[in-house]
Design a protein that fits this description.
By secondary structure, this protein is an alpha/beta fold. It contains nine helices and six strands; from the N terminus they run H-H-E-H-E-H-E-H-H-H-H-H-E-E-E. The protein has a six-stranded mixed sheet. The structure holds zinc ion (ZN). The site of zinc ion (ZN) has 7 residues, from helix 5.
């Protein structure tokens, strides 16, 4: 059986398992969604937000792209944020990077990756502005991971400067978190947090 057939069969098994535990599982879920968390993460296949946080279906609103970037002119992401904040019940926005990120590694090279180059421009700018910091790290893996951290902090900063979002943070008690997923251990690490009162670097 080709693999694509397998995943359709897996779906059948999953439906059977869920309904056996709770016959109303799908009818309850289909009524509405009221997620408290908005996840902005990397598309990397190893960083599934529900799986690594133990959250169930309905708990997390999700946007993913290469290297978890926040571009203010990204209509896709801006719509996800506006919908989540204004029409759903989002209380926490989590920007989550991950060590060993392919997008971050690519941005550190001089190689061209075609259409992706335009997407990576924001990381290239960050590399320039943090050149001294990064040049001081001789180990390549360490350098990539340092840039992963800096990139998360930078995207949280960009979020905090979006007008409609900063109003929501101040008035409705929304918190913006910057986290990194440590690929080698599976553990999440907090890097930065912004709420209505303060900016705290952890
Ligand atoms: Zn990645």
């Amino acid at each position: 059986v080709p693999r694509i057939r397998n995943i359709l069969l897996e779906n059948k098994a999953w439906v059977a398992e869920k309904t056996e535990i709770n016959p109303e599982y799908f009818s309850e879920l289909s009524k509405d969604q009221a997620p408290l968390y908005l996840w902005i993460g990397c598309s990397d296949s190893r960083v599934n937000p529900n799986e690594i946080t133990g959250t169930a279906l309905g708990e997390m609103f999700v946007h993913r792209n290469i290297a978890n970037l926040v571009h203010e002119d990204d209509l896709n992401l801006m719509s996800v944020i506006a919908y989540g904040v204004n029409y759903l019940s989002i209380k926490h926005i989590i920007v989550c990077g991950h060590y060993g990120c392919g997008g971050i590694k690519s941005a550190l090279t001089d190689q061209s990756f075609g259409i992706i180059d335009g997407w990576l421009v924001k990381i290239k700018k960050l590399i320039k502005s943090r050149k001294q910091d990064l040049d001081g790290i001789s180990d390549e893996t360490e350098k990539v991971n340092r840039l992963v951290d800096l990139n998360v902090i930078e995207q949280v900063r960009t979020l905090s400067e979006i007008d409609f979002l900063s109003n929501a943070v101040a008035e409705r008690g929304i918190t913006i978190h910057g986290w990194v997923y440590q690929m080698g251990s599976g553990k999440l690490k907090e890097l930065v947090r912004i709420d209505g009162q303060s900016t705290s670097k952890i």
